[in-house]
Design goal:
With 242 residues, the chain is of the alpha+beta class. Helices cover 21% and strands 25% of the residues.
């Protein structure tokens, strides 16, 4: 099973990984382990992919799946559930509850405290990030925290307009460091890893780790909405083992 395991010093009983498209049953534009049920793939195949993932990854329970809308909502989960939650982040302090974040270029951000008593998973697109979803997630957790940023679109290829630059710099002038001019048409290249790091450090999270994997640049392993348009979703998971 092809997965990405965080390179961070989390407590041993905190388990986490990002999936890839390297396995699974989807075909065509969704080829591989597509976990997104909202992208046009056949629902029974997505269900089969999700079940295969749960069966082959040693998860203690099925992941809690989200209806992600680039919001800043972070929900507490105290037990496994098959309900689809309207949120872009979840956190828990209970064992065997699997938090998840689906992505196809956006940032999957995992959080835990050093004791490993709380964990969170966040889907951070540029809108959610600019509006404060990472800060909302950090506010729910206690103690000294660390973060891991999973596979996402890289700084060399994430082209954005002036509206994205303004969304960050109007509240934080330092954010301009994460943008490089692309051309004379008002386009910029955005470094999402740097943007999320700035925001994490502003709220006291000094220990930030990165996969340094670009979804756009690796079509064999990762889905990328910016690259392909019609495509699947990978996901990033975290839980506290019993």
């Amino acid at each position: 099973m092809d997965i990405v395991i965080p390179n961070w010093p989390a407590a041993k009983h905190v388990k986490a990984f990002s999936s890839t498209r390297g396995d699974g049953f989807s075909v065509g534009a969704y080829q591989g382990l597509n976990l997104g049920s909202h992208v046009g793939d056949e629902s029974d195949i997505v269900d089969k992919n999700r079940q295969w993932l749960a069966d082959n990854s040693a998860m203690p329970s099925a992941p809690v799946w989200l209806n992600q809308t680039h919001s800043t909502v972070v929900e507490y989960i105290d037990s496994p559930t098959s309900a689809i939650l309207d949120a872009d982040g979840t956190f828990t302090d209970k064992e065997a509850v699997v938090c998840s974040a689906m992505t196809a270029d956006c940032l999957p951000v995992l959080l835990t405290n050093t004791q490993g008593t709380q964990v969170a998973a966040v889907h951070a697109g540029w809108r959610g990030l600019a509006n404060g979803i990472v800060e909302n997630a950090v506010e729910q957790l206690e103690g000294e925290l660390m973060a891991w940023i999973g596979p996402a679109i890289g700084a060399k290829v994430f082209e954005v307009g002036q509206d994205v630059v303004d969304a960050f710099t109007q509240t934080d002038p330092q954010a301009i460091e994460a943008f490089q001019p692309r051309d004379e048409q008002g386009k910029w290249l955005a470094d999402m890893n740097l943007l999320v790091t700035q925001r994490l450090r502003r709220v006291g999270v000094e220990h930030v780790y990165y996969s340094n994997l670009c979804t756009y640049a690796d079509p064999e392993r990762f889905y990328s909405y910016r690259r392909d348009g019609i495509t699947g979703r990978q996901a990033t998971f975290i839980w506290i083992e019993k």
